[in-house]
Amino acid sequence: MDAKELKRRYALGERYFPAVNLSRAKLIGADLPGINLWGANLSLANLAKAKLWGADLSRANLAKANLTKANLSGVKLNEANLRGAKLNLAKLYGADLRGAYYDESTRFSKGFDPISRNMQKL
């Protein structure tokens, strides 16, 4: 599935896309609140300024994904792979980051403390 197909199906009311492969997808500014992308491959995807509040991204692979200025409020990111992801200025209010993985190359907003959010450094 590509980004265009995902947005088309979302617009038709579909919300459940577990384990979908969207590696390198261009979803800049996509309006996808409440979408279920559990276990999806979003590595290297561009989700800058995407509106994903209330989405389920648990166990998703977001390695090296661009989430700059994305709205991730209330998003489930349990055990997600955020190694190398760009989360600068991302809204993470109420996001569940328990067990999410990050590394030295993961970029967070100034003052964000991944340890207090129960994230795991690899």
Provide structural commentary.
- The protein contains 1 helix and 4 strands, in the order αββββ.
- With 122 residues, the protein is largely without helices or strands.
- It is globular, with a radius of gyration of 13 Å.
- The model has no long low-confidence stretch (mean pLDDT 98).
**What does the overall shape look like?**
globular
Strand content: 5-15%
Number of strands: 4
Could you say what the CATH architecture is? 3 Solenoid
Please name the CATH topology: Pectate Lyase C-like
Structure class = little secondary structure
- What string, H for helix and E for strand, traces the elements in order? HEEEE
Spell out the CATH superfamily.
E3 ubiquitin-protein ligase SopA
Taking pLDDT < 50 over at least 5 consecutive residues as the criterion, the unreliable ranges are none
Radius of gyration over C-alpha positions, nearest whole angstrom: 13 Å
Reading off the top of the CATH hierarchy, the class is best stated as Mainly Beta
Measured as a percent range, the helix fraction is under 10%
Average predicted local confidence, pLDDT: 98
* Distance between the amino and carboxyl termini: 30 Å
Major β-sheet, in short? 2 strands, parallel
Number of helical segments?
A: 1
In the sheet with the most strands, the strands line up as 1-3
Number of domains: 1
